[in-house]
């Protein structure tokens, strides 16, 4: 009696010597998953390529990069950041704040490309204290980025915490937190900041603290609304039923799903923080005498030069301020449209 042996089919899960399956055994040479002798360098390269492919396929990035206005804003912000960093590490703060009257440098001198001076001398002219306006404006970019980052960063952290806690616990916590935020939102932002600075005193750090108190309610309101939508999803109830603690639910499930409005609101508020700091300095409640703040330079330029035809004393600091705020606004609008156009009403 003979034993018949049928043909071996190249199935998807082969035997020890199978070369045609996609998930082979120890001698498999045709599978997609390599054995212990696989190339680590090739694996790392494949992983990196996979990440790049995922980034390129991201709907958010493709939508953002196709928005010319958002790219323009990103370019402006990158230029301001480069200018700020270079000024911070190449210019002496004392040298650009001290008065140079009585020296060889003339005060209120026009830009070199307008007057008798060499073209590359006094690129933006000099102010009433014979200080180089270009160097002071460049260092003003560092101050704007530094204090704007602190104001937006701290207010974002505080607002996100308060908003998520109010949405998650509700009842008493929600009423206490949000009614307090409503009281702060009832006042015009700049007026409230002026009142706070008037109580605690003038200075850039105190002005920054005032702006933190002004911006926190905005983040709390936006995040609370986003968190309430997330908490309606069934996976939140499933996570709680599995015994997850409140901090774990908030940190691992609620917070990551509110990042879209947080990111957009932070970007838009960054430009607002810079212009509010400049406004407080312009009014004498922010940067003090001699500081290379854009707002203070605008104030001194209007007082000492604008009415006498020395327009460059206020024009160039104001131009850098306007361009910086425009850059953040363009980028924020582009991010909002790329993430979800429906967020326009929620954030505005």
Overall number of structural domains: 1
Residues in helices, as a percent range: 55-70%
Question: What's the total helix number?
Answer: 14
Mean pLDDT: 81
Low-confidence stretches: 1-37, 344-348
CATH class: Mainly Alpha
Please describe the biggest sheet, giving its number of strands, its sense, and whether it closes into a barrel. Answer: none
Query: What is the straight-line distance between the termini?
Result: 86 Å
CATH topology: MetI-like fold
What share of residues are in beta strands?
A: under 5%
Shape: globular
Instruction: Provide the structure class.
Output: mainly alpha
CATH architecture: Orthogonal Bundle
Q: Considering the protein shown, what is the CATH homologous superfamily? A: MetI-like
Number of extended strands = 0
Rg to the nearest angstrom? 29 Å
Order of helices and strands: HHHHHHHHHHHHHH
Index terms:
mainly alpha
Detailed description of the structure:
The protein is mainly alpha-helical and 348 residues long. It has a single domain (66-93, 106-347), classed as Orthogonal Bundle (MetI-like fold). Helices cover 66% and strands 0% of the residues. It contains 14 helices and no strands. α3 (68-90) crosses α13 (312-339) and α5 packs antiparallel against α6. The longest helix has 37 residues, at 133-169. The protein is globular and about 75 Å long.
């Amino acid at each position: 009696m003979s034993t018949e042996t049928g043909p071996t089919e190249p199935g998807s899960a082969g035997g020890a010597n199978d070369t045609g399956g996609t998930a082979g055994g120890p001698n498999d040479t045709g599978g997609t998953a390599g054995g212990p002798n696989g190339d680590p360098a090739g694996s790392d390269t494949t992983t990196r390529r996979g990440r790049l492919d995922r980034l390129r396929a991201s709907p958010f990035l493709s939508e953002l990069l196709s928005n010319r206005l958002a790219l323009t804003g990103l370019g402006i912000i990158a230029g301001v950041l480069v200018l700020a960093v270079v000024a911070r590490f190449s210019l002496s703060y004392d040298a650009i704040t001290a008065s140079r009257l009585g020296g060889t440098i003339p005060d209120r001198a026009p830009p070199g490309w307008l007057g008798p001076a060499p073209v590359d001398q006094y690129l933006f002219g000099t102010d009433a204290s014979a200080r180089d306006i270009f160097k002071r404006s460049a260092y003003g970019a560092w101050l704007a980025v530094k204090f704007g980052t602190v104001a937006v960063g701290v207010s974002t952290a505080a607002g996100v915490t308060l908003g998520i806690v109010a949405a998650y616990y509700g009842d008493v916590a929600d009423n206490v937190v949000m009614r307090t935020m409503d009281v702060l939102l009832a006042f015009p932002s700049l007026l409230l900041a002026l009142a706070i600075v008037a109580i605690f005193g003038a200075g850039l750090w105190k002005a920054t603290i005032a702006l933190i108190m002004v911006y926190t309610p905005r983040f709390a309101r936006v995040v609370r609304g986003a968190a309430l939508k997330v908490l309606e999803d069934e996976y939140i109830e499933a996570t709680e039923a599995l015994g997850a603690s409140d901090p774990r639910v908030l940190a691992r499930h609620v917070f990551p799903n509110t990042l879209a409005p947080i990111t957009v609101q932070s970007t838009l508020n960054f430009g607002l923080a810079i212009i509010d700091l400049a406004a407080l300095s312009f009014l004498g409640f922010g940067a003090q005498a001699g500081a290379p703040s854009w707002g203070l330079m605008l104030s001194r330029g209007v007082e000492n030069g604008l009415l006498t035809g020395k327009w460059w004393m206020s024009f160039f600091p104001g131009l850098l301020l306007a361009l910086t705020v425009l850059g953040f606004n363009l980028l924020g609008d582009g991010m909002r449209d790329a993430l979800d156009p429906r967020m326009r009403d929620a954030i505005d």
